[in-house]
Structures are given as C-alpha cells and as structure tokens.
Amino acid sequence: ESAGDLGVPRGEKKQRTEPRTFEVATDRSGERMRQREQRDFEREEGVQFKARPVSAAVLHPRVPEHRLTPANPTIPESPLLSTKLRGDMARSRSQAPVEDEKAKPFEARPVPAGEAFHVQGSEG
Predict the structure, then answer these.
(1) Please, how many CA atoms are within 13 Å of residue 51, restricted to the half-sphere of its CB?
(2) pTM
(3) Fewer Cβ close by (within 10 Å): the C or N end of the chain?
C-alpha cells in the first residue's frame, strides 16, 4: 500500500482527460433553424411562380414638359434681424445727450488733513 517513503500511501493514477468539442445551446438552435429553412425551401421549390401583370404606365412613364419662363430680377434686401435693432437702439442711446449728467456737479471726498496722509516712495 505505501511507496516506502515516509509512510505516504500510494494513490491511483487518474485517466487522461479526452478533449471534446463544446456543445452550446445556440449551436443546437441554429441547427434547428437551418433544418427548418431547408424544409421551407424544398416546399417552395414545388410551387410554380406566377407573376402579376405590369401596367404600361410603369413601363413607359409620362414625362412632363417644362417651360422656361424668364425670372424677374429683384433687388436683394437684408433681413430685419433683432440684433440689428438692438444695435440701432444702443447707438441712439449713446449719441443722445443726457441732461442729468450735466446738471449734477462732481463731488469728491475731501483730502484727509494731518500726518495720517503720507505718500510713500516719493522721497528722493
């Protein structure tokens, strides 16, 4: 029973694995579809094909006659865009004199008096 090395029992050798092809369910369903299509094709081979009659209008269509008429020339006009209107309004506002600005005198803060106000860097 043992191999004689450290009392380890000898195990049975396993058989080699034989490689087999995969069997996927989609392969089986694809095979069924091919068989069904083959049966349908064989059934249709026995049926005789009969075409419907074609009308003469399809074979020889009428072509309408086109008459060329001279077009009246027109002077192109630019479309009236809202951006152009806004620009005109802005220009008119900037050009119009504003009376409120002329009437109001300029008032500045008074200069602080004393030593607290000292400009740095001007000593030379």
Answers:
(1) 3
(2) 0.23
(3) C
